[in-house]
Amino acid sequence: MEYYGSHISRLIEALTGLPGVGAKSAQRLAFHIINMPKEQVQALAEAMTSARENVHYCRECCTLTDDDLCPICRSQKRNHRQIMVVENSRDLAAYEKTGRYEGVYHVLQGAISPMLGIGPSDIRLKELMQRLQGDVEEVIIATNSSLEGETTAMYIARLVKPTGIKVTRIASGVPVGGDIENIDEVTLERALSGRVEL
Ligand code: ZN
After folding, report:
1. 54, 122, 141, 190: which one has the fewest Cβ atoms less than 10 Å from its Cβ?
2. Residue 76: exposed, middle, or buried by beta-carbon count in 10 A (0-12, 13-18, 19+)?
3. Exposed/middle/buried for 90, CB within 10 Å: 0-12, 13-18, 19+?
4. How far is the CA of 59 from the centre of ligand 1 (A)?
């Protein structure tokens, strides 16, 4: 990529490998950025740096948040005895959009995947088990219906059952291999209300 000059080559290199960004898209993005007004580029860089610096995982549910505790964990209006387990903060956002769930969440930040070498200790399971020592009535497992999501659901069910806490799994109807964040709100609501006990 020497023909581009070192600055643009460096930018292309930095963009390559972001999720969904291959070599071609990286070049397209790089040229787009170079043609943007300088202030806009500055604002973009600033937004990235400050998000990276100021966003952390909630002390309770492990979702991404600006504070020590996220707004959902802080809220007195939520039912803290009902915990819905999701794979990531995007899935949490999808359920929040339905406006029908009144419990709290636990965000695993991933799913078990033997193929990718992601084991139970690589996701936020230990934190979940710690929370279950408190006053909890139900754990709703809302991981994706992919192989990884199902493996994770079974693993969690096996861990939680001996505690005597009710464990449920959201109803299928969520397409197989479907990512929860891409499913419409009606389907999500149906999956939640039709959940079955494991
Ligand atoms: Zn939280």
Report:
1. 54
2. exposed
3. middle
4. 7
Residues 161-188: tens digit of each pLDDT? 999 999 999 886 555 455 666 667 777 7
Q: What is the pLDDT of residues 125-161, one digit of tens each?
A: 999 999 999 999 999 999 988 889 999 999 999 999 9
Query: Does residue 81 sit in helix, strand or coil?
Result: strand
Q: Are 145 and 80 in contact (CB under 8 A)?
A: no
Distance 62 CA to ligand 1 centre (A): 6
- Nearest to residue 180, comparing CAs of 80, 72, 92? 92
Name the β-bridge partners of 139. Answer: 83, 167
Task: Quote the pTM value.
Answer: 0.75
Cα 87 to averaged position of ligand 1 atoms, centre (Å): 14
